[in-house]
Amino acid sequence: MTPSGLEQSTAFMAIWWVVAAMSVIAATLVVRLKDVLRAALALVGVFISVVVLFFMLNAELLAVAQLLIYGGAISILIIFAVLLTRDVHEGSPSNALQAPAILLSAGLLAVMTFVINNTDWKLLSEARLAPAAQERAAEVFANSTPWLAGLLMRQFVLPFEVASVLLLAAVIGALALLREQ
Amino acid sequence: MVGLQHFLTLGSVIFAIGFYGAVTKRNLVVVLMCIELMFNAVNIVVVAMSRYLVPLAMQRAPDSAEAAVAQTLLTGQVFAVFVITVAAAEVALALGIVIAIYRTRRTADTNELKLMSR
Predict the structure, then answer these.
(1) Contacts for A168 with CB less than 8 Å, ≥ 6 apart
(2) What does the pLDDT look like over A138-167, one tens digit per residue?
(3) Cβ-Cβ contacts under 8 Å, A104 against chain B
């Protein structure tokens, strides 16, 4: 069910492991680094590796959106906020909950890994589909953007419109919060 | 070979790291950064599921080659679109709140912000 058989290649696997290692290391740096500005830059590293992951999952539109919105807008906003609050170099100390938090997140990770490995996933590559349906599915992933647009504009048109109201409310709310009294 | 489980495990690891940071960090901006980590982990998971799993509509009609059935393959990507939208709105508002708090109280430390405790 792969559009090109690319997923089976060694290069795909090598790139996957490199990107996965990069994202996990960058995510660890976000929570471990003392300097908040450097933590923000590590966060940009996570965003960029997620862009590569989206490309590997045949989600071109999402990859570009991720690069523009996360890699561009959100990271700039966060870096501005870091610079506007004075304690950049005082670092990001942890509170007293460190030990229980490590336990809780390790437990959460254990539960999620257990579920991932013990669920009977209905995989596309193992599904018994008619040849025409298989061809259609390959077509969808080979060029996903027009199909995504069709789905977004037909089946999900109401949430799509509500999202614009949400963004407008967020803009007005942020302006109202930050206006000089 | 890299499969669905690999992507899901990667998403879980990043989610757990983000959760740990969001619960323990004392700097409000770092807490927000960790929440962004969690959003990204969820995005990886939903997009990977949309790439590797058979949607219900296709399970019910395995012989159908209709566009309406085939496009449900991308439902996970639609979810990711909405997550990105909500995350953008959230980060704009939350950073506004952080800056507003910082302006009035001169701190962004969660241990010193106790407006609601007695």
Answers:
(1) none
(2) 888 888 899 999 999 988 999 999 999 999
(3) 19-20, 23
What is the tens place of the pLDDT at every residue in B42-101? 999 999 999 998 888 888 887 777 877 888 888 999 999 999 999 999 998 998 888 888
**A–B: how many Cβ contacts below 8 A?**
280
CB spacing of B2 vs A12 below 8 angstroms: yes
Of B54, B1, B7, residue with least CA distance to A134: B54
Residue A181: pLDDT band (50, 70, 90) is low
Query: Within a domain: residue B16?
Result: yes
- The ipTM, to two decimals, is 0.90
CA distance A117 to B12: 12
Please tell me the total count of domains within chain B. 1
- Rounded CA gap, B100 and B90, in Å? 15
**CATH number for position B71:** 1.10.287.3510
Let me know if residue A117 belongs to a domain. Answer: no
> B38 lies in a domain?
yes
Give A77→chain B minimum CA distance, Å: 7
